[in-house]
Design a protein that fits this description.
heterodimer; A: mainly alpha; MgtE N-terminal fold; 3 domains; 60% helix; flat; B: mainly alpha; Rna Polymerase Sigma Factor, Chain: A; Arc Repressor Mutant, subunit A; 2 domains
């Protein structure tokens, strides 16, 4: 009886099953014998695309158009990561795409598998160049907040908008700055509306950073958001009126958030789309409760980038502000390369304090995740008393495993009491 | 980690595949569903390749809508959370090199899969990181789920994310073979060209991968059935899902 092996699948059946899922042959329903659950899983893996998977569409198309206007501007392989175009493609832009998804346009179209043809409403590349940046180019798959004339006007390439930090991408990328400029353009409009009492909407370029912060944190900003529909795409992206000031501060690259405590009200997906450089700037200004919540919302890769970009003192400030539980979670989550860089960046005193605050199980996990070189560096730099305390907490088996890979030069500086405990 | 929290929508419609066959799991109702997520059939996409080569942004957009979800899912198994970044680099290179491409839409999928794979390998080298850290939510990283849990999750919901996570538990060569065949919709020969292997090697890797997946799903199914029986004898009525699973098991035995 083969109850133990109902999952047997022949090589031929496997090929047929894969062809069926790939659309290259008859599907399982048409008579291939394959485990039903397996067929189901494979079909789910190949299910139709979802809107979040198309978040980068606008940018990819903009880059395509830019390339056909000026082929030399498209970055060569190897420069891609450093080029402004690529940075924009992979970072800030996603914010705008999320906003599109949040307002529902692409979302509906994609899940029903009926993307509207995107044709006639697109400006031709030639027209786009002569008009300068592509910002006002309407796109059929985007819903009102982005396409209405008022939005386009507030984001139009006026001196105000192009002089703002958010819009100051390099020339080769100018054609690609599309939707994000619309969102940051809305933020500019919000700021200048508040600062001028709603009378003159063109003054934001002249406002100082602190005046912008002040405008964003004032009650008038909240009132404008509630009263007019002009800013509805900002509210939709932030998912709450109270989170808009922080969202705008991030989009306008302000060094401080007007309401740091409200940062946690921004959806994690939006937070994750904020450029690392901006996160790195504001992270040291966050109160500790907000800090752990924000770090918990961000993807691990983003957290790694942010932390590894911090200076030694900023890193100390951030890590020592975290409660032990959040710190433990963070340190056990980071990839080992980032962990090594972070721990070796910390000043010895801060490192001692952090490591001794960890529960022994977490400590074991953290230390064993480190590459030998980083572990050696840490053990030799920490004061002997701290090393004794740290390693003394670990169970003998974990300790011997941890130390087994270390060079003898490192072992020789370890406390003798510890080594004798291990019989070394 | 974005895919873990989003709603499951795998039950709807035909798969990514451009051919006439719909996803086998989508039931009889989907037998009539046709077309792809982008709403374009294979012939239209072939025409889109030609138009995009001449610089038509709408044609490029159509290609992007069909291919980007495939690329992201494949790349997630290679570079985890950095899939979006690597996909963006891939499209930049596609933009630059498209004029020199010769072939139909099937060929195009194989071509961009090759580019994506090269970019992913570059990325891994640059970051000297071990592949593939498949995205897992921060909360659950401390106690990372075992394969069995993943299989169970995949079986219950059969969401796209869960299915991809399960496939990502396979050894890299098997996961890649399975993903190129299903998600990218390539035949064994085309997948072999992407991987720089012989078609026979790809068939073997995919076969092994499917065997492993089937075994894991089985295991999860038996465990669930066991739990269901235990719940039944404890005095409660067995939930409907369990009943269904037991039927499946019986069917599979035939």
């Amino acid at each position: 009886m083969n109850t133990r092996h109902p999952s047997r699948i022949s090589r031929k059946a496997a090929g047929q099953l894969l062809d069926g899922v790939a659309g290259l042959g008859p599907s399982v329903a048409e008579g291939i014998s394959a485990p039903e659950q397996l067929a189901r899983v494979l079909a789910a893996a190949a299910a139709p695309g979802r809107p979040d998977e198309l978040a980068g569409e606008q940018m990819a198309v903009a880059a395509f158009e830019a390339h056909h206007l000026d082929p030399d501007a498209t970055p060569q392989r190897g420069q891609m990561i450093k080029s402004p175009l690529a940075r924009i493609l992979t970072g800030k832009i996603i914010i705008a795409s999320i906003a599109v998804a949040a307002t529902g346009g692409v979302a509906l179209a994609a899940t029903t598998g009926t993307f509207s043809g995107s044709g006639s409403a697109q400006a031709s590349p030639g027209a786009a160049t002569s008009a300068g940046p592509l910002a006002p180019t309407p796109n059929p798959s985007i819903t009102d907040p982005f396409a209405t004339p008022s939005t386009a006007a507030s984001a139009s390439p006026s001196p105000g908008a192009s002089g703002s930090p958010a819009a100051s991408a390099s020339p080769s990328a100018s054609a690609a700055v599309n939707l994000p400029k619309t969102l940051s353009g809305l933020c500019e409009a919000l700021v200048s509306d508040v600062a001028s009492g709603g009378t003159d909407a063109s003054a934001s370029a002249t406002l100082s950073t602190s005046a912008k912060e002040k405008a964003l944190s004032s009650g008038a900003a909240g009132q404008l958001l509630g009263d007019t529909s002009e800013f509805s795409s900002l509210t939709a992206t932030a998912q709450a009126n109270v989170a808009v000031p922080d969202l705008c501060a991030l989009l306008l690259d302000l060094p401080q958030l007007p309401q740091p405590g409200d940062l946690t009200k921004l959806p994690g997906s939006v937070l994750a789309a904020v450029p690392v450089s901006e996160l790195t700037t504001v992270i040291t200004t966050l109160p500790s409760s907000t800090l752990s919540a924000v770090l918990g919302e961000l993807p691990v890769s983003t957290v790694s980038s942010v932390l590894t970009n911090l200076s030694s003192s900023a890193l100390t400030q951030v890590l020592t502000a975290l409660p032990t539980s959040a710190l433990s979670q963070l340190l056990t989550t980071l990839p080992s390369s980032a962990l090594a860089q972070i721990l070796t960046t910390l000043p010895t005193s801060a490192l001692s304090q952090l490591l001794t605050s960890l529960p022994s199980s977490v400590l074991d996990q953290v230390l064993s995740a480190l590459p030998t070189s980083a572990l050696s560096q840490i053990l030799t730099e920490l004061p002997e008393s701290v090393v004794s305390q740290l390693l003394g907490e670990l169970p003998t088996s974990a300790l011997s495993q941890l130390l087994s890979g270390l060079p003898s030069s490192v072992l020789s500086v370890l406390p003798t009491s510890l080594l004798s405990q291990l019989g070394l | 980690m974005w895919w873990v929290t989003r709603p499951t929508d795998s039950k709807s419609g035909a798969g990514l595949g451009a051919g006439p066959a719909s996803g086998p799991a989508s039931g009889p109702a989907s037998g009539t569903a046709s077309g792809t997520a982008s709403g374009l059939a294979g012939a239209d996409l072939a025409a889109a390749v030609v138009r995009a080569q001449r610089g038509d942004p709408d044609a490029f957009r159509a290609l992007y809508r069909d291919a980007q979800p495939r690329l992201l899912r494949y790349l997630h198994a290679l570079v985890g959370d950095d899939a979006e970044d690597v996909a963006s680099e891939t499209w930049l290179q596609v933009t630059r090199d498209l004029a020199g491409f010769a072939g139909d839409y099937d060929g195009f999928r194989g071509w961009i899969a090759t580019i994506a794979r090269h970019r992913a390998m570059d990325h891994l080298r640059r970051h000297a990181r071990r592949p593939p850290a498949f995205p897992v939510p921060v909360e659950s990283l401390a106690g990372r789920p075992a394969v069995d849990d993943t299989a169970e999750g995949a079986m219950e919901a059969v969401s796209t994310g869960a299915a991809l996570a399960l496939i990502a538990t396979l050894p890299a060569d098997q996961a890649e073979a399975v993903l190129l065949r299903t998600v990218l919709g390539l035949d064994a020969a085309a997948a072999a060209r992407v991987l720089g292997k012989r078609p026979g090697a790809v068939r073997t890797a995919a076969h092994r991968g499917l065997r492993t997946l089937a075994r894991q799903l089985d295991q999860a199914q038996l465990e669930q059935a066991g739990k269901g029986r235990a719940a039944g004898t404890a005095g409660g009525t067995a939930p409907g899902g369990v009943t269904q699973l037991r039927e499946l098991t019986l069917k599979d035995m035939r």
